[in-house]
Design goal:
Structural class: mainly alpha
Number of domains: 2
Radius of gyration: 29 Å
Number of helices: 17
Strand content: under 5%
Largest sheet: 2 strands, antiparallel
Number of strands: 2
Distance between the termini: 106 Å
Helix content: over 70%
């Protein structure tokens, strides 16, 4: 008993909340292990893979915002939400948030225990508004921000995934032709020892390789997946690929613009929420997905901490007649706007306007790219299919020439 008392209270008799949260996290992990072992027998609501989609989190914030703005008590609102939520993992988190309020644990502290469900921006804003007693405002802001973020991320993912899906369908179609169509057509030529044209022979060799050595292809795919998984554990390779994504042909604009848009939006919301500048930069660096942008924002935050302005940290120098700008991650226009509005103390207003412009430009680019990629993929599919068809038909053309000479 004395050990527990000594652990949760310091020498000034202040309650040590961090130690209590650590003990709570350890107890939660042990509880989940027991639940997974008995999931098939005791509790059918426990899922094998604890995951919550962004849409479910948005619905959680949306309903909580409606309840709070209707002047419903926060604990009662969480209790109603727990009954409406279908995801058992999110339901358990909601009940834990409600129970922890009785023990003096803030909502943001409980949310911080689930980083895969609630991102850093959500936790930071909940923390700020809990301190200012304006929780209903942050819920409205979070709801709109999460909805915009979900829509933008879905468009960005679709722009990246759409051509990949079409290419995979093309590969499947080509493999089907190589396995089931090409061998049957070329079988008669091989039995007659007919000398095949080089294009037809290439197609036949590929067909034989896919049929006889398919296990080598599967091993190669598994090896590539393992290598990429191992690369994610190495910082050097992660930063190398992060810089490579920024230089990808066609898609580089989406990677850069989406990271800039997410940074500006989160940074603006934090500033409008009266979060300190350094804390806003630190939290915003956790919101962006590209590691190169994370590294750049941490560098800017460290230089601002040494009493440099954000514009100078972006390497914008206005002391010379010919202004030199060398930052490759943030556009020069952004640095000039930041420099201008830093002097007027209305940085968040200018950033909101920039975010609107950049967000609209990104949406237009994604729409144009999707419209442009569709005919390109169709041409690629047409080229591959007709290359195989023509290669197969070449021996028939040569037979027709021989028959004509006879």
């Amino acid at each position: 008993m004395f050990w527990i008392w000594n652990t949760f209270y310091d020498k000034y008799w202040n309650f040590n909340n961090h130690a209590f949260l650590k003990l709570l996290e350890e107890a939660r992990k042990k509880q989940y292990k027991k639940q997974r072992k008995s999931m098939w027998f005791a509790n059918k609501e426990i899922t094998l893979f604890n995951s919550v989609s962004k849409k479910e989190v948005w619905q959680f914030i949306n309903k909580l915002s409606i309840f709070i703005n209707s002047w419903i008590d926060i604990k009662w609102a969480l209790n109603i939400l727990a009954k409406q939520i279908k995801n058992p993992y999110l339901k358990s988190i909601t009940l834990e948030i409600k129970d922890n309020i009785d023990h003096g644990i803030a909502i943001n502290e409980t949310m911080a225990q689930f980083p895969k469900v609630f991102d850093n921006l959500t936790v930071a804003l909940i923390k700020v508004w809990e301190k200012t007693w304006r929780l209903w405002d942050i819920l409205i802001e979070l709801e709109s921000n999460m909805l915009e973020s979900i829509e933008l991320k879905s468009k960005v993912k679709w722009a990246m995934i759409y051509p990949i899906i079409l290419l995979w369908l093309t590969i499947i179609m080509v493999v089907f032709m190589m396995i089931f169509i090409v061998p049957r057509i070329t079988e008669s030529f091989e039995k007659a020892w007919w000398e095949l044209p080089w294009a037809t022979q290439v197609v036949v060799n590929i067909s034989h390789f896919i049929i006889n050595d398919w296990w080598k292809i599967i091993l190669a795919i598994i090896w590539v997946v393992i290598v990429f998984k191992l690369i994610n554990f190495t910082y050097l390779w992660r930063i190398l690929f992060a810089n490579l994504y920024i230089k990808l042909p066609i898609f580089w604009y989406i990677v850069k613009q989406s990271n800039i848009v997410f940074f500006i939006k989160s940074f603006t919301i934090l500033l409008n929420s009266w979060v300190l500048l350094l804390e806003s930069l630190k939290t915003s660096s956790l919101v962006v997905s590209n590691l190169a942008y994370k590294k750049e924002l941490i560098r800017i935050k460290n230089e601002v901490e040494l009493w440099l302005t954000i514009s100078k940290s972006l390497w914008l120098n206005l002391e010379y007649e010919a202004n030199i700008y060398m930052n490759k991650l943030f556009p020069e226009e952004f640095a000039y706007v930041v420099s201008t509005w830093e002097e007027t103390w209305s940085l968040s207003n200018s950033l909101s306007k920039i975010w609107t412009n950049y967000n609209n430009e990104l949406k237009r680019y994604i729409w144009n790219l999707s419209s442009m990629m569709e005919p390109i993929i169709i041409v690629i599919v047409w080229f591959l299919v007709w290359s195989i068809v023509i290669s197969i038909m070449l021996p028939f053309f040569e037979m027709w020439k021989i028959a004509k000479n006879l």
